[in-house]
Amino acid sequence: MQQRQLGHTGPTVSALGLGCMGMSAFYGPADRAESLATIQAALDAGVTLLDTGDFYGMGHNELLIAEALKQVPRDRVRISVKFGAQRSPDGSWLGYDARPAAVKTALAYTLQRLGTDHVDVYRPARLDTAVPIEETVGAIADMVKAGHVRHIGLSEVGAATIRRAAAVHPICDLQIEYSLISRGIEETILPTLRQLGIGVTAYGVLSRGLISGHWTKEAASAADFRAHSPRFQGDNADRNLALVEALRTVAEARGITVAQAAIAWVAAQGPDIVPLVGARRRDRLAEALGSLDVTLSADDLAAIERAVPKGAAAGARYAEAQMAVLDSER
């Protein structure tokens, strides 16, 4: 397994990470046995980075990971956890809470559910606009000193917030959406990260399956959160699927799948970027792992970007209400 370091101060992890969210929430029912088998297959293949959030299934995802790791030495994996999102029993979103006391309380519950004494990377899921980022990072820094957290990360924040956070404590990485059709970080966020020596864990590398080569409008389900995503709706979906077909032509000429081309493109944007794949099944995981064997030439990269030009996606990556609260979009 190839390795990459999360920034100048972070841990060394596998060049591909496994995002476990879909095993507990947001994409409709998941098969528990298959989820556990997929995590095991990832570990067997050398994947060492598992990403979760305490609000994925309201603790379900952390408990699932704990079960999968029962017989695995703790130092074999790096667990990244997001916190702060507030949800009601019916699953609706209530905002974010990143006050220092909330930070430490959330971590206490996370450690209990995961059955571990530390989290490798701990990060607020979004910016809590009511709490200075310095206070949130300072609280996590307290937990670093206490030994409960190894490294501090951020998620979906902009350049100014990154700089303020890094002035308080070293930040190892920013988790943010980055894909062929979500390239907003290239303007100011990515240059800022590189200036400060902060890595990227890129989620949504397949745009939640949209550019995986597998998603179809016929397969859409109202139980799936993508039904509320502008890119998956109506004419937007048709235009985006046309991009997928253009990418398929390039991928097939190269002897790889659409998903492998999309993942390899993200990985090729720099050694400081670790793609996260949200595979819920072993076959999808195996396909994603195949991207690690792909070396894209300059001609390959140019062909991929001709097929999916920057800014070509139809629709925003989140619904309007969610976009409005993203610090990374300001």
From TrEMBL:
InterPro entries: Aldo-Keto_reductase, NAD(P)_OxRdtase_dom_sf, NADP_OxRdtase_dom. Residues 16-307 form the NADP-dependent oxidoreductase domain. PROSITE patterns: PROKAR_LIPOPROTEIN (PS51257). Keywords: Oxidoreductase. This is Aldo/keto reductase.
